[in-house]
Amino acid sequence: MVHIPRWQVILTLLVLIGGIFFASPNLFDPESLDEIPSWVPKDQVNLGLDLQGGSYLLVEVDIESVFAEQRDNRVDSIRSELRRSRPAIGYRELGVAGEFVVFTLVEPSDENITRTREVLRRIMPEALVTQSDGAFRVTDSDLVKEERRARTIEQTIEVIGRRIDPTGTLEISLQRQGDDRVLIQLPGVQNTEEIKERLLKTAKLSFRFVDENANPVAAVAPPGSEFLEAAESEVSGGTRRYVIKKRIIVGGENLTDAQATFQDGQPVVSFAFDSVGAQRFGSATQNNVGRPFAIVLDDKVVSAPVIQSPILDGRGIISGSFTIEQTQELALLLRAGALPASLKFLEERTVGPGLGADQILAGEFASILGLVLVIIFMAIIYGLFGLMANVALIMNLVLMLAALSVLGATLTLPGIAGIVLTIGMAVDANVLIFERIREEVGNGRSPISAIDAGYRRALTTIIDSNLTTLIAAVILMQFGSGPVKGFAVTLAIGLVTSMFTAIMLTRLLIVTWLRRRKPQALGI
């Protein structure tokens, strides 16, 4: 452990220089950074809503549209399954009546009623089915409705988070309010128009067949089909209209990736399905070569190309009259997933930092006080070795600041608490090493042998203790949100940087001093 390869020395110095380079923008005002060259890093640590203010958005989720869509889907499923039965089951007056899907059998015999119940149980086992003299009513229990409502809100919160903060570093806060509302807190955001525009897009993607036997200019669409307008194309001053089958072959929930790219010099969006989606897509294209296949986004037909050959690899292209910015935005929305229901903005407030200035001062005071006390303690207890550890501690803070800046992470009060905790933990590895070196010196070893044994024997303990804490921090980052996630981010970054400075930087300083001074005894 006393011998340090040249590549490790170079790597350590490069990391330290890079840390200082990327942390330095935090010493300047944001306005002054505009005057420096473009190649110089300008990223600063973002402050959270509790420190710098921001915006509140209260949105209402249109839960009723989810139930209405489910009832329409049930109508299509019932129609398809009753016709597919052998022999087919005749029905009439199939449609939606309030919260019910209703229909009446043409021949309400006991056999047809039994077969119909079996069909309904197979395609919608959770539904409540009531029947009287061949007249059926289908709905859901209150418990099922409440579970679907909660699931819709949870999915909405998840999609909103991925759309606004795809990297997970801005530390937005999303909270459910009541039965159908979500409160969004956006730290540092004063103009919410771009955010609102992004959220208003449901980004529901589906792949469906074009009904070639229907007339697009007819007054009424055939059963099982609907009229949809083209997203961009205009013909003779009017919008082009398609007749599209309601049955969805593949939905956006089967997408695994979407990226903005180019094809033949035009901006397009490439996409990829999961295994289930790829199988459905491949089967549909293989059995329907020569048939038009519509790509529908938010009830608009983006394109309706004719299937030229089977597409079996689960990959495809969405093309249209897109700009580069539109393909990038569309790819982001598709990756984030479709909102299960549309949103309505009920309230918007822009707030200042409030007590943020006092909280920042309190956090700075706590950090500086903790740093000073740790520096004094290390200097008194370990002498020269303690001073070397203090140099590593200061560089640890610089590396943390650089990492937070590069990641664009948001610093909140819990994040400051994580920094204060890291200051205390940063010297923990050095304490373990120094105490082990003391033991080896007490056993009569020479300075070089004592330092080598101290680092070698303490290394396993250092890795184990920091790794277990890092696992806890990663779990908090994965499953926590808001303040909890902010604390976990700073803690995880601090653990990584403190291990680097303790194992690499402090050792480099000690070994350099050891080679130059060649001491006969260690003052530790």
Describe the structure.
The chain has 524 residues and is an alpha+beta fold. The radius of gyration is 32 Å and the shape is elongated. The strands form five sheets. A six-stranded mixed β-sheet has the order 11-10-16-15-9-12. The protein has a four-stranded antiparallel β-sheet with strand order 7-8-2-18. It has a four-stranded antiparallel β-sheet with strand order 3-4-6-5, covered by helices on one side. Helix 10 packs across helix 11 (413-426) and helix 11 packs parallel to helix 14. It has helices at residues 6-23, 30-33, 49-52, 63-84, 110-123, 142-164, 193-199, 275-286, 324-336, 356-407, 413-426, 428-442, 447-479, 483-517; strands at 46-47, 54-61, 91-97, 100-105, 128-132, 135-139, 173-177, 181-187, 205-209, 225-235, 238-245, 250-251, 255-263, 266-273, 293-297, 300-303, 315-318, 343-351, 410-411. It starts with 5 loop residues before the first helix and ends in a 7-residue tail after the last helix. Strand 13 and strand 14 form a beta hairpin. Residues 233-237 have low confidence and may be disordered.
